[in-house]
Every structure is written in structure tokens, then in C-alpha cells.
Task: structure prediction
Amino acid sequence: MASSRASTRLAFTGSAGWRLASFLVAAAICLPVCALAVAALGGSGDLWRHLLSAVLPSVAFNTLALLLGVGVLVGVVGTGTAWLVTAYRFPGQRILEWALLLPLAVPTYVVAYAYLDILHPVGDVQGFVRWVLGYTSPRQFRLPDIRSLPGAVLLLGLVLYPYVYLTTRAMFLTQAASLVEASRTLGLSRAEVFGRVAVPLARPAIAVGVSLALMETLNDIGASQFLGVQTLTVSVYSTWVNRNDLAGAAQIALAMLAVVVLLVMAERHARRRQRYAAAAQKPRPMQPVPLAGLPALGATLACALPVLLGFAAPAAYLVSEATKRVRFAGVSPRIIAEIGNTVAVSLAATLAILGCGLLFGYVGRTYPGRRAALAARLASLGYAVPGTVLAIGLLVPVGAFDRLVADVVERLAGISPGLVLLGSGAALVLAYTARFAAIAIGGVEAGLGRISPSLDGAARVLGHGPAAAFRRVHLPLTRAAIASAGLLVFVDCMKELPATLLLRPLNFETLATHLYGEAARGTYEEAAIAALLIVLIGMLPVAVLARLGGGSTPADASARRDAGVGLADS
Result:
């Protein structure tokens, strides 16, 4: 046994440098949070006296109410639709299985932008409703204003429920049919099986999906600002941009971090005594029950409504408005330049993030243990930090580095190089890397986890070291998982708005910032093309998830899903 341990240590001696590199990268990713605390200490208490008396009470209430409303809505819609398409067979079920993922392609700020125009008091929708009811003027009748807290809850919930649907449906697919059959034998109806057996067993998956949706809600800035809901994220942005108060923005950002920590702790505390174990034998999936008549119609409508409101309606609006814009004025050269900016910065960040994922996957594979797992989990923490908070934290070290470089170059060469990181867009790449590294880490780990350890032993017997084994064995076998993770990362970088608003160079616009600026000015027709492009590109990972989610085994779908929820157990 001692010789076995010694040989194992010798076989992995070459990975010590890679382990050190993984901890250095993890420390760099965590640096913005540490810098945030340092920046917050430099502020005065004057801002907080103003915030506590005039701002924070309403902002904190709006934030908590928004989180609570979105959490309930995504939990109900995501879990309900996942059960319907798994446990029953009804008209359109096969199409709705993947169509229910389509709202993931639409960023929250795009949906808010679309519905602001769709439901405008003098728009076609409200005009048709008034015509049906016999009214002639908005003063006589108008629908409730979408610019409200309930409106924000509804729109965000319609976009974010697929997080719960994706994780919960995978859990329902892997639940043994014997448990459902035993419940039916004991006299439970199908509805009682759902409430008393399926949902309790799927609670970890539901909790993961709801947590991801709430983190996205807390990260949102565009939809909340468009809909007139002042949240903590909006306060951070306005404090930095409007008041030019970095310390004050850092202090509010730390309050947001506290909200994230409380959310995670509350979720862990709620299921601290629950344990789940799989059966020794491979579980047999449940057989869907055919529905007919009104129950079948009700199931179809219940699953189709979220797709219609969360994707079809805003997508149809964007197609219509973009077509009108192109016919009237063509495609603006500015849009072409913004597409280039978006692709360039997203592609650079994707390559950097995949490099991080491969690094941590390599270390975890060749030298497994708590230290490697700790480094990977630390590097994944950025996914739990809202983009606004991460950007504020990154401003401190990036600004210090730019000032240092400028001083050195000016003393040595007598010229000013300007802002090296902030002015070149490198700060954006760093922010995206810290924000989305968890996706690549989860994807690479899931892919490597499906490779038999015997292949590692065979590679060592043939004289290959860890690096050669990774290049010639692991990398080819994980190509699909790496590609899926890269696609998810690229689209998330392209859609990221808060960090891009704060860290972009001067006169540097992406599709997301262009849409935000036009919608903030109320010129919706100018932003339709950018919004439509964001949605079309966002449909790429949804198509991949739909294809892989309907693969041969639930385990395959679960492994791919880990690319998007690698943070869940950190």
C-alpha cells in the first residue's frame, strides 16, 4: 500500500505547478470582492445617513419583494411545467419539451424593452382591448401599468423559469418509476404523487434552479430600470455613475453581497436535515400517462402560455420592428461595428474562461483532493456575485494597475499610455472571466467525470505524463462538453449588461449597451435590430440544451446541464 501511494505521488509530481497556478487564478478571480471591501472602507458615513433616511428603505423593500415574487413564480411555473411534460402525454408535448427552454434566449432587459412598447397605453394591444370592451380612449380604460413592481416580477419570472424547469425535469426523469407505482398502489392520485412524492424528492433541483434565477434577478439592471423599479443593483450603478462615488457604490455592493449570502444560507438551512440517495439498480423512468379531452387541453395551454409570453410575443415584436426599421433606413453601420465589438470581447473572454475551466479540470483530475476542489469552488464564486458588484470591485485593482503603468511609462518614456486595461477592453474580459468561470469549470468537470479512471492508468503505463494524457486522452473525449460550455459562456458574455456598462472603454458600444441606451431614451425602433440579434444568438445554446436534454439517457443531459449550474454545490 505504501509503494502504491508513493507511485501515485510520483506520477503526479509534475502537476504541482498546475495546482499552484489554479490557486493563483482562483485568488485573482476573488480579488474584486476583496478590493470591494477595501474600497468600502474608504468611504464616509455621510452617504449612508442619506441612504438610510431616503433611499435604502424603499430600495431594500423593492429588492426583497422582487426576489420573493420571482422565486415563487419561477418555482411554480418551472416545477409545474417540468412535471406535466414528464408525467403526461398530451398534444404538443414533444414540441413543448424543448420550447419551454426558449425564454432562456431572451435577456431580461430585452423582454422589458419589448413589453414596454407592446403594452403601451396607445399601442395596438391596449387599443384592441378597448375596442373589444367598447372604450375609445386610454382615459376611459387602460391595462395595469407594466412599469411597476408586479410587472417586473411577472416579466422576470417569465424569462427565468427555465432555470427551474431544466434542473427539475432532469430530476423527474431520473426518479424511479417504482416509487410512483408504489405511491399509486397506496391509493395516491397522480396529483397527490406530484405533491407528496415527486416534489419532495426534486427539492434539491428546485432549490438550485430557484437560486440561479434569484441570482440573475439580483444581477438585473436593465429590466428593473426600464420598469421603474429601484433595486440595490440600480442604486449601485446610479451611485457610481451619477454621483461618481466609488466608495459609496462599494458599500451598497457589499450590502448586495450580504443578500446573496443570506439567500444561499437560507436555502442550505431549509434542507439541512434532508438526505437523498439513489437506488442500487439503475432507475426505470416513469411512463407518461396519456391525457384526453379537457385535461389534455389544459396541460397544453399551461405549458404553452409561458412560451408564448416569455418568448413568442417579444420575439414576434422584435422581428416586426426590426423589419420596419430595415425597410425604412436599412442597417446602420453603427450596428455592424457593435456586432464586431460584441463578438470580439465575448470571444476573447470565452477563450480565457475555457482556459480557466481546463486548468481546474486538469488539476482536479490529476491530483484530486480537497485543495483542488477548494480552488475550483473559489473560482466559481464569481457566478454568485452580481455583475454590478463584480465590476465595482474590479475598478479598484484595475484602476490602480492603470495608474501604476501610466506613472512608470511617463517617467521612462515621457508619454502617457492612457488607461491600459480600462481603455482597451481588457477589464471587460477580466470581469467576464470572473463572472462566468463557473460555467466552464462545471462543464469541464462534468466531461472529465464521465471518463473512466482506467484510461489514466493506461496512459501512465504507456509512459505518458499528466499533461500528455490530458492532451491525447482527456481533451478529445471532453470535446463535446467543452464546446457546450464555450457556447454557453459566449452567449452569457454577449448578454451581460451591468458589468459592460461600468467597464466598457469610452465610445465602445456592444449590442447590449446599444439596446440599453436607446430604450432609456425611449427610441425603441432604433434598438429593435440589436435586440433581435441578441435573441437570435441567444437561441444557439438553447438549441444545444434542447438537443442534449433529449438525448439517450438522463445522465447525459445531467452532465451537460452541469456546465450551467457548476456553482450549485459550491
